[in-house]
Specification:
heterodimer, A: about 260 residues, alpha/beta, eight-stranded mixed sheet, 11 helices, globular, B: alpha+beta, 2 helices, about 50% helix, elongated
């Protein structure tokens, strides 16, 4: 994937944008890229807690956009994953505070002047101002979709909006697949989703209890990074980050509890 | 031979239909109203004509097309 500024979006909420952003960010950083992940929600903060960094938030995106902090002060370096940085969302409810022009400038600054290789932009759900701001600097998009009707419908809408913005490097992430249900014919298959939406998938991620477990551990939250060769979650992410580079990973099979 | 229709086939059908309307920025309700209005106009010219009018969305290559089928006696 050539795009360096990538918006992770879906339309529908709750399909796995934030988890995908965190995982992919970690995966790319593990491959040697300097990655910034930015939480662009307005008023709700998710990326920090999914990454286990919530205790280290001092400044946020709006602080940077409004000049109260320099971006280097706001960026949180993930101590477990080299080259991975988080810019947390603001908890203000003021939608107007997110200026698309300033945000675009910030992303440009990160890529051109702060030496980042990729910026992953975690978009809020919906098609309103939050998404629009998140998409403004994007050169490409990852559309996260679950294999079910409501999600596919919303993904189709989002794809239309991305293409209207001339964002053309759009790739699909099919998340929360249940291979056993697919073989029984009770769930849309990867082929069905790809046929309907017309985008190439770069990642196929099965439903995995472990992802939730990593959000709510008895110890510290965060990715299963100490497992060699893996970012967050199951085999889905390792293949996916290699797909960003154009390798062809094997299709995951449903096995046990995944 | 009896074969249970897999629920995903139904889901796929529904999706394709709803997306056809979404992409054309039409609602099924709008199409129903259009059909009703067309029928009224038709009756003015062909007072005896009642049966067989159909109005539906069709995919023609890249484009969505609204097709009206008006059989004349």
């Amino acid at each position: 994937m050539k795009a360096r500024a990538i918006v992770v979006t879906s339309g529908k909420g709750g399909v796995g944008k934030t988890t995908t952003t965190a995982n992919l960010g970690a995966g790319l950083a593990r491959l040697g890229e300097k990655v910034a992940v930015i939480d662009v929600d307005v008023g709700l903060r998710n990326l920090d807690v999914v990454m286990g960094l919530e205790g280290r938030v001092v400044f946020d995106l709006i602080d940077v956009l409004e000049g109260r902090a320099k971006v280097r002060q706001a960026l949180i370096r993930d101590k477990r994953v080299e080259n991975l940085y988080l810019l947390p969302a603001s908890q203000t409810k003021d939608k107007e505070a997110l200026d698309p022009v300033r945000f675009q400038e910030l992303v440009r600054h990160l890529l051109e002047e702060e030496g980042f290789d990729r910026v992953l932009i975690d978009s809020p759900a919906g098609i309103e101002k939050g998404f629009q701001t998140a998409a403004t600097p994007a050169e490409g998009a990852l559309v996260v979709v679950n294999p079910e009707v409501a999600s596919v419908r919303d993904a189709d809408r989002i794809i239309g909006l991305l293409e209207a913005r001339e964002i053309r490097e759009n790739l699909l992430v099919i998340n929360r697949l249940r291979p056993k249900m697919v073989s029984r014919g009770d769930m849309l298959s990867v082929e069905d989703v790809v046929e309907i939406l017309g985008l190439k998938p770069i990642g196929i991620i099965p439903e995995d209890e472990q992802v939730l477990h990593r959000h709510h551990p008895r110890g510290r939250a965060g990715p299963r990074l100490h497992q060699p060769g893996r970012a967050f979650g199951p085999q889905g992410d390792e293949p996916r980050r290699h797909r960003l580079y154009g390798h062809r990973p094997p299709h995951p099979r449903g096995r046990g509890a995944l | 031979m009896w074969r249970r229709e897999r629920s995903k086939e139904k889901a796929k059908e529904r999706l394709k239909l709803v997306l056809a309307y979404d992409r054309a920025k039409l609602s099924p309700g709008m199409v129903e109203n259009l059909k009703r209005d067309l029928l009224e106009v038709l009756r003015r010219y062909f007072p005896a004509q009642e049966e067989g009018l159909s109005v539906a969305l069709e995919e023609r290559g890249e484009r969505m097309v609204l097709m009206a089928d008006i059989p004349l006696k």
